[in-house]
Amino acid sequence: MLKVKARAGTVLAIKLALLNTHMVLSAITHRLTCITFELFLNNPNKMFTKSLRLLLIFFICAVPLFAQDSADTPNYALSFGISSKFKLTQYNGQIAVKKILENSDQIRLFINPFYEFSDYNSVHYNSPNEFQLNSSQWSINAGADYLWTAFKTDELLFYIGPGLSFYFSDQSGRQPLILYQMLYSESESVSYSAGVRGIIGTEWKVTQSIGLHSEYILLGLWNKSKTTEKRFEEETLARTLNYSEEHTIFESRLLFGLSVYF
What we know:
Blueprint: H1 2-42, H2 47-66, E1 76-84, E2 95-100, E3 106-123, E4 130-152, E5 156-178, E6 183-205, E7 210-233, E8 236-261
Antiparallel strand pairs: 1-2, 1-8, 2-3, 3-4, 4-5, 5-6, 6-7, 7-8
Helix pairs in contact: 1-2
């Protein structure tokens, strides 16, 4: 009788400890999320990167504590691109949804939005004139991949596959031509790209629900861009230029990311 009560007390103590741990981790996660949002509002370029890395590290460390072992194979995964070229200096921005098939192959749909804006003043050392300069760029890259499972163990997965990629970009800005003569230009460029890509990658399953992956991607794209440039002399439009360009792009990329399976 005493042994049964002792075991019941031990189980209750373990449950209370796990509950307290869960509450503490939830509070920390909420606080880190608030800090991330506040830092992003104050400095979206530098502080966002640092706070995002902090959240990702905490997420990777905290999730295994509550992961449940299951014999069921996950059917879907949400994937995040953490960085390019294996350098944790910027958020890649790629978000993908993966469908896991019965033979362990994967169908992946991805989207990669990007936006950047800068606004600054420039003064030439030979000129008393001050220029208000700015530039902005936004783009979106989307596509689909089919990933064949080449080799698989309980913790490691090697995969290869083809994919399609589509890209659109809009870039505009105001730049000086000759500062001391008050010559500057305003331009807007629109670019389209479409092509194929090949993927070779490996993934390490940290838990049943979390995986870390690295990929080598080869890209072959056809690109077309149109640019309109207006040149001004002391706020007076002097000339308008329109030109277009078509070319092919061949490049390779390295990508490091995280996947959440469910």
